[in-house]
Hints:
The protein is α/β, with parallel strands linked by helices. It has helices at 12-24, 38-45, 54-59, 75-85, 99-112, 127-138, 164-181, 260-263, 265-281, 289-308, and strands spanning 3-8, 28-34, 49-51, 65-68, 89-91, 117-119, 144-152, 185-192, 199-205, 210-216, 224-231, 235-237, 246-248, 251-253, 312-313.
Amino acid sequence: MTLSVGVIGTGVMGAEHVRILREETAGARVVAVCDADAGRARAVAGDGEAFTDPLALIHDHKVQAVVIASPDATHADLALACLAAGKPVLCEKPLAATADQALRVVQAEVQLGKRLVQVGYMRRFDPAYVEMLHVRQSGAIGEAVLLHNTHRNAAAPDWFTGAMAVTNSFVHEIDISRWLLDAEPVLARISAAPGGDPLMITLETDRGAVVSTEVYMNARYGYHVHAQLVGRDGTVEMAAPTVTLTNHASQHGHAWPENWVPRFRDAYRIQMNAWVRSIAEERPVGASAWDGYVATAIAEQVATALQTGNPVRLDFGQRPDLYL
Length: 324
Ligand SMILES: NC(=O)c1ccc[n+]([C@@H]2O[C@H](COP(=O)([O-])OP(=O)(O)OC[C@H]3O[C@@H](n4cnc5c(N)ncnc54)[C@H](O)[C@@H]3O)[C@@H](O)[C@H]2O)c1
């Protein structure tokens, strides 16, 4: 069976998801795209239909499943519309712009009694993170006690406002740290360098591990994501994120990608294929709506701590049975 997918938002991420669905995904085809900018939608629509109204795409009978890649503030309402229509949805991170909105998505899914939402925390599919998880689970490095994350962008995207370094970028580290450590953050501390960039955020987990994350939105030299997991008996970390090394102009080394698209190309592709398969098999994979809610709830509380300068005890309530 071929899954007919509609993609909402055809900017940087949406256009890449359309390309992956067309060129690199088994068992799927793009039957519709939607963008508030009609020209942008038409440019990537191919032989699919181009919409400017996302609700019209969600309700279109041709569309069996939806990818949401429009701006953060649109995610929750569109995910709710997908749930109301009973259509599976891969929603880009974050699940919502606020914890309250994210919780509404969780509550609607719990009411439905069926998991239809996957949140696009694609690092869970990145080969380097997957290998780090396997090393921890094998016991080879002993009990995990520290996780050091580095998250550097060359430059913050134009649309970044307010605390988005936390609510849009750091959410990746919240999700991947919970997943890598199989633990829940319970306490957060945050400090900012002069001018507010970079940030240093420390989380303590309910298993006693400590997670440090540098979030640097304007690091200039390139896009650089790194993680090192420290155990009692050893460490495991990512190698340089390239497959070749260059000798040039008296230097030896690798180039840094410009942004997340080349760095996480494999992760986006593997995520999309896993999502399409999971719909056929009715077996959810990846980050759930609950995971999306927890990441946004923690990010919101960390953003508050940034204002006050005080450590914050994290609170996001009980995981509903649907997500156990
Ligand atoms: N998983 C990741 O690694 C990753 C990386 C980058 C961005 N993202 C997420 O993807 C989303 C899109 O980011 P982007 O970088 O592609 O942004 P973008 O600005 O390049 O694209 C967003 C597109 O959505 C369109 N749009 C705006 N409002 C709309 C609406 N109501 N309905 C339909 N289309 C609408 C815009 O016209 C634009 O074309 C964001 O939520 C962002 O957080 C995820």
